[in-house]
From TrEMBL:
Protein name: DUF423 domain-containing protein
Source organism of this protein record: Thiosulfativibrio zosterae
Alphabetized UniProt keyword annotations: Membrane, Transmembrane, Transmembrane helix
Main location: membrane
A Pfam family hit: DUF423
Stated family: Belongs to the UPF0382 family.
Length: 133
């Protein structure tokens, strides 16, 4: 199997698994955790779900880009890694904060910064497209 096809499949799989995780985490919060959470914690959880959803969808976008521009597959892979790290640190940090682990709040801005790099790099690609090999 060639690398671009493999990359797009992994990105589509990562997007699908993240969407499944979002549904599970949303249901968990609505049914099991909500009675134990205060309004502020519920807000953290909802914010985490929102940004997690946006960036899970972005994995599908990167999969389509890998499909349409296989010559740039290394770039799409690196952007996917940044995106995944952003999900882990930003949304993951908010999920953990919502569960009362205040000591890990420093993860959230790290994730936000990683997403800034991710989106800035993707924007730069549209401004000044890289040369295809």
């Amino acid at each position: 199997m060639n690398q671009p096809l493999q990359t797009e499949r992994y990105l589509f799989l990562a997007g699908s698994l993240n969407m499944l995780l979002i549904i599970i985490l949303g249901a968990l919060a609505s049914h099991a955790l909500k009675p134990q959470m205060n309004i502020e914690q519920q807000g953290y959880w909802q914010t985490a779900l929102f940004y997690h959803s946006l960036h899970a969808f972005t994995l599908f976008l990167l999969g389509f880009l890998a499909q349409k521009q296989p010559g740039l597959v290394k770039i799409w892979q690196k952007l996917a890694i940044l995106n995944g790290l952003g999900i882990l640190f930003f949304s993951g940090g908010l999920y953990v904060l919502a569960m009362g682990f205040q000591s890990l709040h420093f993860l959230i801005p790290i994730g936000g910064f990683i997403w800034m790099i991710h989106w800035g790099w993707l924007s730069w690609i549209w401004i000044k497209p890289p040369r295809l090999p």
